[in-house]
Specification:
The complex is a heterodimer of chains A (246) and B (287). Chain A is mainly α and 246 residues long. Chain A is built from 10 helices and 2 strands, in the order H-H-H-H-H-H-H-H-E-E-H-H. In chain A, helix 6 packs parallel to helix 10. The longest helix of chain A has 32 residues. Chain B is of the alpha/beta class and 287 residues long. Chain B folds into 2 domains: 212 residues, P-loop containing nucleotide triphosphate hydrolases (Rossmann fold, 3-Layer(aba) Sandwich), CATH 3.40.50; 69 residues. Chain B has 11 helices and 13 strands. Chain B is elongated, with a radius of gyration of 21 Å. At the A-B interface, helix 1, helix 2 and helix 3 of A face helix 2 and helix 3 of B.
């Protein structure tokens, strides 16, 4: 595994050293100049994308044929890509969080580190989801075709999510939103009036969402699901790789 | 040929959409160089891929150094060179060496690798894409040799190389084979290289192994007979493999050259080269 990781690492650094540095400067610069946290979230995804290129480099040099003649197991060959992806996601997550420490909105107090953490965790979960889909598809169809297939799969997932929200009644949606803290309580007790009054408010800020423990369950659940999906994806890719003909 | 087998293919079959290999039965004796010849698409690379564990056969059994090619511990004892499958060309020899050290662990001899690079005059810090074709092949061989393999499996190791580089590489093979436990199986289109170094020749034709014979016996056995048709008719059936007619008469590949010369004392029957054998077999099947 060490040799495989080193191979991918040295290829990516050799090919993309300047590019990675430029992306880092550009994304950090845009985030700070325009006070846009989104650029730091996107950094996690962007760095992950680089590791996907390692599969393309392998294809162009027919590395997998050669790898089958070496004393390494298919699970290790595939696993090194997953590990590299995880290192990229964790590494860019740490860079992003450190960058948030000096972020203008954080310095001014208009944004909390809590919000930054949630955004970065969501970006990490999304990256894990992307790789969980794209790596097995790359091993099955080749990395070029896999990119197109991943976009189609993500669009299908979005359609499923949108259809679900359409199928649910507004009352059912409100119950779900309320459960996770995106909406205030349906009614609150007014001590002056001595009775409950309707108080149906949609919460728009993370500070409000974060007060609900269920919201943290949702974030933690998304990350846990992302990790679980990643592990399952690794197993699926290993099976595909083992049965692939070269 | 020595009795001990370095590799055995037993009833190997592999079916593709437009090509079928086998069934192939082939034994690679330990301590020898076996040349695998055949036309383009005859199944040489397919055979080597099955033997090295890249692809499994549909049926039959492949044995490599007493074990299965699918066993990583067995593959650790083999050095493989495929014509176009290697590390990404953006890597340098030094980085390839570090990666291989991680893959092979204690088996990898970094000093031996550096020694091969030095012997071949390869700059370890240059990227592979900056190397010539000959240099790339030398690097592939250095990579295949630095973990002290017992067997080398080589797919077209001298293809596209100039005679000087080919000579250096063939010398390397002869050095390697000095150890009686070492074995080489190499496919090649350059049959003159095989005539120089191989102990035996295996001929694959349209996915079928036509023969695997000791090279010297092969050279003695097959002959190119130049004679008239009347003489040709005097030969027993099965002795003439294929006859080619030309403006200058007919030329026939015969099996059992000594016997032919006995039966036709006045005829010219020179020893056939591997190229001749391939050309005539392929001409026979093309009819």
């Amino acid at each position: 595994m060490k040799g495989l990781l080193y191979k991918d690492w040295s290829i990516l650094i050799g090919q993309y050293r300047k590019n990675i540095f430029l992306v880092l400067i550009l994304y950090l610069g845009m985030a700070y100049l325009f006070n846009t946290p989104f650029m730091l979230y996107a950094l996690v995804f962007m760095f992950g994308i680089y590791t996907q290129s390692a599969v393309s480099f392998d294809e162009s040099s027919h590395w997998d044929t050669y790898a089958h003649t070496l004393p390494i197991h298919p699970a290790a060959v595939v696993g090194s890509k997953y590990l590299l992806g995880l290192i990229a996601i964790v590494g860019s997550f740490v860079i992003g969080m450190v960058a948030f420490l000096f972020f203008p909105s954080i310095a001014r107090g208009t944004m909390g580190m809590e919000e930054a953490l949630v955004g970065m965790l969501a970006a990490a979960a999304l990256s894990l989801l992307y790789f969980s889909l794209s790596l097995p598809l790359s091993y099955q169809f080749g990395s070029e075709r896999a990119r197109a297939v991943v976009i189609v799969v993500i669009l299908l997932l979005l359609m499923v999510a949108m259809t679900t929200t359409v199928l649910l009644s507004s009352e059912q949606m409100q119950v779900i939103q309320r459960f996770f803290g995106f909406r205030g309580p349906a009614e609150i007790w007014d001590s002056n009036l001595g009775q409950a009054v309707v108080m149906d408010v949609e919460y728009g800020s993370l500070t409000q969402w974060a007060r609900n423990l269920h919201f943290w369950w949702l974030i933690g659940g998304c990350v846990a699901f992302g990790v679980l999906l990643y592990v399952v994806s690794w197993k699926v890719s290993t099976v595909i790789y083992r049965h692939k003909q070269f | 040929m020595p009795d001990k087998a370095a590799a055995v293919l037993n009833g190997i079959k592999k079916q593709y959409k437009d090509f079928t290999l086998g069934p192939v039965d082939l034994t690679i004796p330990a301590g020898t160089i076996v040349g695998l010849v055949g036309e383009n698409g005859a199944g040489k690379t397919t055979t080597l891929k099955i033997l090295t564990g890249v692809n499994p056969p549909d049926s039959g059994r492949a044995e490599l150094l007493g074990g299965s090619p699918r066993d990583a511990a067995v593959r650790a004892r083999v050095g493989v060179v495929f014509e176009d499958a290697y590390f990404y060309e953006g890597m340098s020899a030094a980085r390839i060496g570090r990666s291989m050290a991680g893959i092979f662990g204690s088996r990898w001899d970094a000093k031996a690798y550096a020694g091969y690079l030095n012997r071949f005059g390869l700059d370890a810090n240059k990227k592979v894409k900056e190397y010539s074709r000959g240099m790339r092949m030398k690097l592939s061989l250095a990579t295949a040799l630095a973990h002290a393999p017992e067997m080398l499996v080589l797919d077209e190791p001298t293809a596209g190389l100039d005679p000087v580089v080919r000579g250096e590489i063939l010398d390397l093979f002869l050095d390697f084979i000095q150890d009686e436990n070492h074995t080489i199986l190499m496919s090649s289109h350059i049959t003159s290289d095989l005539e120089q170094v191989a102990d035996s020749i295996a001929y694959l034709h349209h996915g079928t192994l036509l023969f695997h014979e000791d090279k010297d016996t092969l050279m003695q056995e097959y002959g190119l007979l130049r004679c008239g048709e009347a003489d040709l008719r005097r030969l027993p059936e099965g002795m003439a493999v294929h006859t080619r007619q030309s403006a200058f008469g007919c030329e026939t590949l015969v099996k059992g050259r000594t016997e032919v010369l006995r039966l036709l004392p006045g005829a010219v029957c020179d020893p056939a080269s591997i190229d001749d054998i391939m050309r005539f077999y392929s001409g026979r099947d093309g009819q």
